[in-house]
Amino acid sequence: MDSDPTKPAVAADREQTEAAAVRHLFRNQIQAMTSLVGLFGRKLPPGEGRDAFMDLRARFEAATFGPADDALPDQDGRFEIDLAEVARRVAGHLDPNFRHRLAIAGSLILADPKRASALAQILAELVVDLFRNGFADGRTGAAEIVISGAADGSLMMRAVQTAPADASPRRDRSDLGAAIADSLARSLGGSIARAADGPLSSEVTIPAERASR
Fold first, then answer.
1. Structure pTM?
2. Phi, psi (degrees; rounded to nearest 5) at 26
3. Spatial distance between the Cα atoms of 19 and 113, rounded to a whole number of angstroms
4. Which domain of life does the protein's organism represent (predicted)?
5. Is 133 contained in some domain?
6. Would 1 be classed as within a structural domain?
7. Is 110 helix (H, G, I), strand (E, B) or coil?
């Protein structure tokens, strides 16, 4: 009988190394696609076609987001995740000239890679919604994005358009981005509430991980 007490730890370290290698490979492949999509999109004239490619680039950016390759998980397999950085990156793709003012606040949260990826993609859709629908009338606008995690692991993400005060955003629940965000939120046991009128406002509530399974 093999009684080597170090074997479980060695096996766990090997699994973590292999998982990090897979994440690194996936991230590199998607980032290459992101660059190609962005390059093609920038060559298009301003309009819906260009916007569609830049939105796709933003979605690829969110899909690659996760813990660093050398990050170590806690005892529950969770990593520290900075979702506010996702919002900043996506906004940078959609508004490279900083025409709109976006205030982003959020603390680090703990999540496993799968949950982190889903949360990042939901947040990306909130940002895309702000720029494509909230700021649709062409005027300079402003918005606030808040990401708040509770001690039990539950999470709230809120995106609120704050200017112009008389904004009349486009609202279409059949929009691809809304469908993606709603589906991902449901997969985590959560939901998205959207204001029916006035400036654009969306709030995502996600229960603690153990409660969403």
1. 0.78
2. -60, -45
3. 10
4. Bacteria
5. yes
6. no
7. strand
